[in-house]
Amino acid sequence: MKLIIGNKNYSSWSMRPWVMMKQMGLSFDEVLVPLGEADTKARILEHSPSGRVPCLVTDDGQSIWETLAILETLAERYPQHALWPSDAGARAHARAIACEMHGGFVELRTQMSMNIRAHRPGKGATPDALADVARIDAIWSECLAHYGGPFLFGEAFGAADAMYAPIVSRFITYAPPLSDAARGYVERMSALPVMREWFDDARKETHRVARYEDA
Fold this sequence. Notes:
Blueprint: E1 2-5, H1 12-24, E2 29-32, H2 40-45, E3 55-57, E4 63-65, H3 67-77, H4 88-103, H5 106-111, H6 127-147, H7 159-174, H8 180-191, H9 193-204, H10 210-213
Parallel strand pairs: 1-2
Antiparallel strand pairs: 1-3, 3-4
Helix pairs in contact: 1-3, 1-7, 4-7, 7-8
């Protein structure tokens, strides 16, 4: 398999399937296309008809774009890894918060763009961005209390955790106010070897995209 991704420092959507696949122990080739270059879209279009990352190219040559579609494909192909909870109610809950992450939190995305190399405590803290932070905090706190942690749906790292992995990086960069439960989740997630590997790779990158650096 091949996973087409953007810069690890900036590409939050690329991070989600990469972290999930690494946590699953899957073998895949990583194809990194630098963002913000004149040929970026053309290079991505070689793999993905959307012209955006991430895109998974399966071992039989099928291209799957959009993060949730990639996660669902992985869940179907590797059921032994239980990306979604086995209980139907918990599974519906996990999909609901994953979809909320996929389609929501626009102000947080705008004001607190992912930049792992940066240190911006207090930046981007508009009222709407902080409302997004509070909603994510509430989602995490409810899941951790109901399912017992250490991850959102219990003992196993799953698709819902992968969907919120880039938020962990944003909360480290911008340090918004968080509850004790949410702060503990950030600490546990950021200590995972797969998360540390992504962070380390991001910090080693030298490619810069001005619109993210000047945000």
